[in-house]
Amino acid sequence: MSEPLNSTSLASGHRPPARSAPRPAPRAFTLIELLVVIAIIAILAALLLPALSRAKGRATAISCVNNLKQLSIIWTLYAGDYNDTAALNGSGTDPTVQLTWVGGSFESTPTDDTNLFKLIDPKYSLFGPYLKSAQIYHCPGDKSTVVLGGKSVPVVRSYAMNSMIGWSGAVYRNNPEAGYRTYMKMTDFNLPGPSSTFVFAEIRAESICRPFFGMHLSTPSFYHFPAVYHRPSSTLVFADSHAEIHRWLDPRTLDPPANTDWHGHDIPSPNNRDLVWLQEHASAKK
Predict the structure, then answer these.
(1) Fewer CB within 10 Å: N-end or C-end of the chain?
(2) Domain spans in the chain, listed from the N-terminal domain onward
(3) Rounded to two decimals, what is the model's pTM?
């Protein structure tokens, strides 16, 4: 039994053990506080997601530009190796033309849509000896697929070459168009000039087929339709090797009618500023 406190024990410095104060119970979030936090997070997400989406889209467009720059380098190297002659372009099925810059015709041979060998094998492609990466031919924003053997398979090519450049073989469905310049040598690009003549461009997935980017130059009509994988823009590279992300302005370019006959290759679009721009940057009258 403990001794009772007295004046002696207090004087000697002894103190009774202190009792600890009871700890308060932890305070939980109230429902109102939780709702406020959730609302703040939602507002921040709404502010940040569009910016992140734009940044991702910009990165995709830059990657696409890099692809076209690589194709332009190969195109230039080829000309240097073959006495200034532009790499051959054409329908891809002309029996008189053994090879074009790439092989294949998506329209007439559906399996060509996914055939990497038509891009990188020298037996099918003039670029084959120079370029072994099939990824260069495909825009990262192009998510188009075809169904083969019951499976959905990505299409391997997003780009095509201006039909007024390097065309060899018979005229195919009015390409290249008579009365306009066809550029067969690197020194031929005097009008509209190398910085104003596109060589490669993206084609809309529904419209792409042969190696060439088809053009109607004297009528207000699309042959091939430019892609909008970087909406409202697409990428092109020019004969002077500069590439650009070009913004389309006409709603008909961005959203063609659902019933468009893509492989009729004659899609009227009168007074379309985008079509006029493409025509002016494809060739010039002789």
Answers:
(1) N
(2) 59-280
(3) 0.81
